[in-house]
Design goal:
Elements (H helix, E strand, L loop, with lengths): L2 H14 L15 H10 L5 H15 L6 H10 L2 H4 L5 H16 L5 H9 L1 H12 L6 H10 L10 H9 L7 H15 L3 H9 L2
Length: about 200
C-alpha cells in the first residue's frame, strides 16, 4: 500500500469520526529541564496522569532549571528523584545523559535547542548524539521537536498506531506512518504537528 493510499485511508477515518487537524496547537515547554524530563519519562507512560504532573512539579520547584547549567546545578545539589517523584534509576540516568549531550553541544536554553533542531547539519549531529543514549529511539528524537514547539514534526506512538489500525492501515512501521501523517496533513493544508496532536487525542 502506498503512502498516498494510506494517507487517504487516514483522512477518511478522521472525517467519519469528526477528527480534524485544522486546529493549530502549541505544545512544548520553554524550560529545558522540563523538555528533558518529559522526553525521558514519556516512554510507556500515561502522559496526563504520570508525565505532565511531574514536569509541572519540576518547573514549579526548580524554575532556574530552565537552562542546562541551572538544571545541572540543581541535580548536583538536590534530589531530582524527590522533586519529580520518580524512583527508577534507569529514567533518572537517562535524564542525566540527555542533559550531558546538551551540555556537550553548549545547548543551554530551549531556544538553543530549537536552533539546533532547525539547522540541517546541527540537527543531524545532535540527533546522532542523542541516539546513543539508551532508550532514545526515532520516536523520542522526533518528540524533541514537539517539545520545543516545532509544528513540522510528528512522533509516532501507540496511540497513533491504534488510530492507523482503525483506519485500515496495515503497515505500522515508524517511517511509513510518519510519512502517512505528513502526507495526510499536506493533502488538507494542515501542519503535521497539529494532525499529530489530533491523532494523539483521538
Amino acid at each position: 500500500m502506498t503512502t498516498s493510499m494510506d494517507a487517504g485511508k487516514l483522512l477518511t477515518y478522521l472525517d467519519s469520526n469528526g477528527i480534524s487537524g485544522a486546529n493549530q496547537v502549541t505544545r512544548g515547554w520553554e524550560h529545558l529541564g522540563a523538555v528533558i524530563v518529559d522526553a525521558a519519562l514519556q516512554r510507556r507512560q500515561r502522559y496526563k496522569a504520570t508525565v505532565e504532573p511531574r514536569v509541572r512539579a519540576l518547573i514549579e520547584a526548580w524554575p532556574d532549571a530552565a537552562t542546562s547549567s541551572g538544571f545541572r546545578a540543581r541535580i548536583e545539589s538536590e534530589n531530582l528523584s524527590a522533586v519529580i517523584r520518580w524512583k527508577s534509576a534507569d529514567r533518572l540516568h537517562q535524564i542525566d545523559e540527555i542533559l550531558s549531550v546538551f551540555e556537550s553541544k553548549n545547548i543551554n536554553t530551549v531556544s538553543d535547542l530549537r536552533t539546533w533542531l532547525a539547522s540541517s547539519p546541527g540537527r543531524l549531529e545532535l540527533r546522532s548524539a542523542l541516539r546513543r543514549v539508551k532508550h532514545v529511539g526515532p520516536k523520542t528524537l522526533d518528540y524533541f521537536d514537539i517539545l520545543v514547539g516545532r509544528f513540522d514534526s510528528v512522533a509516532i506512538d501507540t496511540k497513533i498506531r491504534k488510530v492507523a489500525a482503525k483506519a485500515g492501515i496495515i503497515n505500522h512501521a515508524y517511517g511509513h506512518l510518519a510519512a502517512v501523517v505528513h502526507e495526510a496533513a499536506a493533502m488538507r493544508g494542515w501542519r503535521p504537528g497539529d494532525l499529530d496532536a489530533a491523532l494523539w487525542n483521538a
